[in-house]
Amino acid sequence: MKVGKLNWDDLNELIKENKSVNRDDVRVKNGVGEDCSVIEYGEYECVVSTDPITGAESNIGRLAVHINCNDIASCGVEPVGILVTILAPEHTTMEELKNVMKEIDEETKKLNVEILGGHTEITKAVNKLIVSCTAIGKGKKGSAVATSGAKEGDDIVVTKSLAMEGTSIAVNDYYEQIKEVLSETEVTEAKEYVDSISVALEGSLAGEFGVNSMHDITEGGVLGALWEMAEASKVGFKVYEDKMPITIVTRKVCSKLNLDPLRFISSGSMLITTRNGEELVKLLQQKGINASVIGNITKSKGVLIKSNIEYEVEPPERDELFTIEEKINKL
């Protein structure tokens, strides 16, 4: 099988064939495109999500905190705690473990999220450090926003710039292959993208504004996130390539490595659908968060408009991050 997320047909089959228990107090249940489950507790509800870091070597502690807390934020609720599992190969040093935990501690401090516990193990089962976290959030009953809430006619909004996470990883882990196309200033900019991968603020603001669905953009990029949202909501979408917010640095890196920025891992960007996208964009910009309306939700079929030509968006395959090494070999 190919490296990366399981393809969506196989994943959907696994999920559907293993749902023996169906509890009434689980309001939002697992499914393709739904990153969080929501459990009702009286007047409150608990939001939970889990994800590992497998495609990066630098900043893995920081990334692990934010990709998990971003899932909670995409429900419009506050993340309150995180559980951390570290699986490390035999050659790992204590200093490396300390550095990862220091990153995790620093990022959780910024978000006011407590490290609740976890597990750390040296194992022959992995050949590089793996960090996996489970994040837990809390909100008033009925307040959590699901990925599956997108409605026909909604505007589609994305925050910040796409593929920031992928660009940061590429510059950190494959610097020798891309240094000729970037200035030192651009290299610094790319490395600093990791400082902007939290979507906690926009998640909170959008939740208060009132939106129909939210989904943080991770593996598979914006097109993968759109397909997941549409699949979960049983709708379609029409989006425009020329409206996608992509920095010059990201375009240079993707061009050099022959990567599609629309299918490149994009933690730091939130996908939001709402009846009044322009008003939401204004609100976010007032709070210092760039945002763009890139299209709208339709009745069926996902479509990307590129140079006035319609292309149907297929289910996401593995993220461009996992193709970098084989593409480098062809340079």
Mind explaining what this structure looks like?
It contains eleven helices and 13 strands. The protein has helices at residues 8-16, 60-73, 94-111, 164-173, 175-178, 184-192, 200-209, 221-233, 248-257, 277-286, 324-328, and strands at 26-28, 37-41, 44-53, 78-88, 114-122, 130-140, 155-159, 213-216, 236-240, 270-274, 291-298, 302-306, 309-312. The strands form two sheets. The protein has a seven-stranded mixed sheet with strand order 8-10-7-11-9-12-13, with helices on both faces. A six-stranded mixed sheet has the order 1-2-3-6-4-5, covered by helices on one side. Strand 2 (37-41) and strand 3 form a beta hairpin. The longest helix has 18 residues, at 94-111. It is globular and about 50 Å long.
Structure in a nutshell:
34% of the residues lie in helices and 26% in strands. The protein has 331 residues and is an alpha+beta fold. The protein has two domains: 24-140, 60s Ribosomal Protein L30, Chain: A, CATH 3.30.1330; 147-328, PurM-like C-terminal domain (Phosphoribosyl-aminoimidazole Synthetase, Chain A, domain 2).
How would you describe this structure in keywords?
single chain, 331 residues, alpha+beta, 60s Ribosomal Protein L30, Chain: A, Phosphoribosyl-aminoimidazole Synthetase, Chain A, domain 2, six-stranded mixed beta sheet, 11 helices, 13 strands
- Termini gap: 25 Å
The major β-sheet equals:
7 strands, mixed
Query: So how many helices?
Result: 11
The CATH superfamily label of the largest domain reads PurM-like C-terminal domain
Blueprint (SSEs and pairs):
Elements: H1 8-16, E1 26-28, E2 37-41, E3 44-53, H2 60-73, E4 78-88, H3 94-111, E5 114-122, E6 130-140, E7 155-159, H4 164-173, H5 175-178, H6 184-192, H7 200-209, E8 213-216, H8 221-233, E9 236-240, H9 248-257, E10 270-274, H10 277-286, E11 291-298, E12 302-306, E13 309-312, H11 324-328
Parallel strand pairs: 4-5, 9-12
Antiparallel strand pairs: 1-2, 2-3, 3-6, 4-6, 7-10, 7-11, 8-10, 9-11, 12-13
Helix pairs in contact: 2-3, 2-7, 4-6, 4-9
InterPro entries: HypE, PurM-like_C_dom, PurM-like_C_sf, PurM-like_N, PurM-like_N_sf
Protein name: AIR synthase family protein
Domain PurM-like N-terminal: 33-137
